[in-house]
Amino acid sequence: QVQFVASGGGLVQPGGSLRLSCAASARVFSVYGMGWYRQAPGKQRELVASITDDGSTNYSDSVKGRFTISRDNAKNTMSLQMNALKPEDTAVYYCNARRGPSIAYDYWGQGTRVTVSS
């Protein structure tokens, strides 16, 4: 079964930058949107950034202006450039995809852990 798998996490100092990548575990077609979720300890899972096949993006207020999402439609890959990182950004980050605007994100896979600490 197809999963989208995040990679590129690690330890970074506050104010630093990190770039996450996302790729499907198998060939997939008709991807309408892709998005990045994160879940911090004791927190609900949060959609922090999303992008549609036409390049339209949305960001949560907590990351707006600091994170940038991008995708390669041909490869169905995605990245998340994270700048000005804060300790509050510490979480496991997951990427996912959906096949249409009224269809749920349903390609959960292994996330990557981001730790922002001095």
Give a nutshell description of this structure.
With 118 residues, this protein is an all-beta fold.
Mean residue pLDDT:
95
Output the number of helix runs: 0
Class computed from helices, strands and strand pairing: mainly beta
Distance between the termini: 39 Å
Q: Assess the beta-strand content as a share of residues.
A: over 45%
Radius of gyration: 13 Å
Low-pLDDT stretches: none
From N to C, what is the helix and strand string?
EEEEEEEEEE
Query: How would you characterize the largest beta sheet?
Result: 6 strands, mixed
Q: Output the strand order for the largest sheet.
A: 2-10-9-4-5-6
Counted beta strands: 10
Helical residue percent? under 10%
